[in-house]
Amino acid sequence: MTLDEICEKIKACAQLMNARYGAVVFDEWVLVSLEQNRARILHYVGPRNDEFLKNFVNDLGPLRNALHDAQYGPGDFEFARHGVGTKIEAFLVAGPGLYIICNNTQNSMDVIAKNPRWLEAQIPFAELAEHIRGNPLHISWDTKIFSKPN
Question: What are the two backbone dihedrals, phi and then psi, of residue 20, each rounded to the nearest 5 degrees?
Fold first, then answer.
C-alpha cells in the first residue's frame, strides 16, 4: 500500500467510526514511523500538530512496551483503557516499524467504550486492520519510495 492510499483509508475509517458512534471517537490520527530508532510523523490529523512528536514518548504511557513488542505484525492493534487527555488510546501496526496512533485528547478509552454505540464504531477500525494485514505499508528509506513489499 502507498502512503497516499493509507492516508485515504485512515480518513475514511475515522469518518465511518464517528458516524457510527455519533461523535468523534479519536480526534487524533497519526501515521508514525519508528524505523532507524527515530520517530517520524508521516501523516497527522488532530488538534496538536506541533506538540504531538514532542510529547510522543510520554503520551504512549502503557502502550509503550506493546508498541515495541515484536509479536505485533501488520493489522495487529492494542488499546489502553485509561489514557486520559493526551495519553494515547490505541495503535494499529501499518507495516514494519510503521504505526497508526489513535487518540482522543478529551476522553479516555474507558469513557469512549461506555457508549453503547462503541461496538458498532469498532467495525470500520477492524476492517482497516484487516485491509492492512493483507496489504501493509512499506517504506524504503533509501529510495524514499512508498510501496507494498515484495
Answer: -70, -30
Q: What are the residue ranges spanned by the domains of the chain?
A: 3-133
Whether this model's pTM surpasses 0.85? yes
**CATH topology classification for 3-133:** Beta-Lactamase (3.30.450)
Alpha helix (H) residue ranges in the chain: 3-21, 49-60, 64-67, 109-114, 118-134
Q: Specify the 3-state DSSP secondary structure of 143.
A: coil
| Exposure b/e, 2-27, CB count within 10 A at least 16 = b | ebeebbebbeebbebbbebbeeebbb
- Number of H helices and E strands in the chain, helices first, is 5, 7
- The string of pLDDT tens digits covering residues 87-117 is 888 999 999 989 999 999 988 888 999 999 9
- The DSSP bridge partners found for residue 138 are 147
Coarse DSSP helix, strand, coil percentages of the chain, rounded to the nearest 5 percent: 45, 20, 35
